[in-house]
Amino acid sequence: MIRKAVNETHSALTHFTQKCRTLNHLKELHCQLLKLYLPETPSAIAPLLLFVVNSGNPSFFNYSRIVFQNLDYQSTFLYNTMIRGYMQSDLPIPAVLCYKDMLRDKLIVNNYTFPPLIKACSMILNEFGQRGFSVHAHLLKLGLQHDRFIVASLIEFYSLNHEMDRAHMLFDEIPNRDVVMWTTMIDGYGKIGEVGKARLLFEEMPERNVISWSAMMAAYSRASDFKEVLCLYRRMEEDGLMPNESVLVSVLTACAHLGALAQGFWVHSFAKHYNYESNPILATALVDMYSKCGRMKSASSVFEVITYKDIGAWNAIISGFAMNGDAVKSVQLFNRMIASGNRPNETTFVSLLSACTHAEMVDVGLSLFSRMGSVYGVEPRFEHRACVVDLLARAGKLEDAEKFIEENMGGIEKGDANVWGALLGACRVYGNVEVGDRIWRKLSNMKVADHGTCVLAYNIYKEADRDIEAKCVRKLIEEMRIKKQPGCSVIEVNGIAEKSLASDLLHPK
C-alpha cells in the first residue's frame, strides 16, 4: 500500500513539476498531495521535499522548511534530504541542528547523512570547531568509516582544519582514490605551507584535472615561488589542459611579482578570447599585474570596464598609481571610490599613505590618517602608523616622527626594522645626527639592530666625522656577523623570467 502510494506520488510529481515554476505552483502541488495521499501515507511528502531541494530555488526551500517543521511524520530520508537542502542553501548551522534533531528522534542515520553533514562542519570550523570531531566519532561508532564519500568529506574537513596528519591517515586507508581526494590533499598541504609534500602527491597522481593544477600553482604562489608557478603552467599547457579562471589568476599573480609582462599580455588575450575578463577576481589580477609592470594605461583600461568594482579592484588601481608615483591620481581614485558607495579598508589606506609619503604630500597623508577611524571606521594598525613615520621622516620632520612613535606606537621599542630604518635613513639624508644618535642608542641597547640599521648608523656617524661611534658600530657588525641580504633582479627573456642575485656566479647565464 505504501509503495503504491509513493509510486503514485512520483507520477503526480512528474506531472506537476513540469509546470512548477513559482511558489504558488509549489503550494498547489502540496495541496494536491494533501488531498490525495498524505492522510493515509505521510511518507508521500518525501518526493516533494526531494524535488524542492533539487530545484535550487531559495523560495521553494524556505517553504519546504516550514512544511518539514510541521510534519507529524519524520524519517531518515526526510532528515537527509533537509540536511542536504540546508547545505545547498549555505546554511551549515541549521544542517547541524537538523542532525541533532534526527538523533533526538532516535532515527537511524546512514551513509547518506554524513557527507553533507561533514561539509556543514567544515563551514563552521571557526565557530564550532569540535563539532566535526564529534561527527567523526559517531560515524566510527556506526562502522561507516570505509564509505569513500564519507572519507572524502572527512579529508576535506581535516584539510580545512589544517590537520594534515589526520587527513593523510584517512587518505592512505582508501585504496581507490579519485582525483578529488588527491586535489583536496594537495590543497590542504599548500595552505599550511608544506609545498614539498603537496608536490610529491601531485607527481604521484594517476590523473590530473585543471583543479589539481590550480591547487598546486596556488600552493607555490602562497610560498612566493612564482617562477615555479609559470613552469607548472607551461607543463599544463603541454598536457593539453584548458586553464580556468583560478589558474589564470595564479599565473597573473606570478607575472606581477616577476615582471613577466609578455606572459601577462598572453594571459590577458586568452582571457579576452574566452570572456574570462568579466570575472572580477581575474580582472583585478590583471589590474595588479599591469600596475606592477608599470603599465598604468593598460591597468586603467581593464579597471574601467569592470562592471562591478569591489574593494579589491579599487585597491588594485589605487595601489597601482601609488607604486608608480602618481599620488594625486591615487587620491582622486579614492574620492571616486567613496562617491561610488564603496567603503575603504586597511589595504586602501596603506596604499594612500605610501603614495603621500613618496610624493611628500604630508598634509594630505596626515588628514587621511586622522579620518581613518573617525570618518571611515577603519582602525589604524601598526603598518598605517609606520607609514606616517615614514611620511614625516622623508619630509624632514624628524622630531615630529620621533614624537609620533612615542605617542602613537608605544615608543621605539614597539617598532620594527622598517620603522627604525625609515627614521635613521631620513636622519642621514637631512644630516640630523642628534636624532639619529638617540634612535641608534635605543636600538643597540635593545639588541635588535639588523644589517640595514647598523649600516645607516655607521654612515650617519662617519659623515658627521664621529669616528669613534662609527668604529663601535663597525665592530658590532663584525661581532654579530650580520650579513646583508643580496639584492636580486628579474628579467624576462623569450617569455621566461630569469632571476639573478648580486655577485652570483652560479647562474648558468
TrEMBL record:
| Keywords, alphabetical | Repeat
Q: Which InterPro entries match?
A: E_motif, PPR_At4g14850-like_plant, PPR_rpt, TPR-like_helical_dom_sf
Q: Does the keyword Repeat apply?
A: yes
- In its UniProt record, which GO terms are filed under biological process? RNA modification
What Gene3D superfamilies does the entry give? Answer: Tetratricopeptide repeat domain
Which molecular-function annotations from GO does this UniProt entry contain?
A: RNA binding
Which windows of the sequence hold PPR repeats? 178-208, 209-243, 310-344
Name used for this protein in its record: Pentatricopeptide repeat-containing protein At5g66520-like
Recall the taxonomic lineage recorded for the source organism.
Answer: Eukaryota, Viridiplantae, Streptophyta, Embryophyta, Tracheophyta
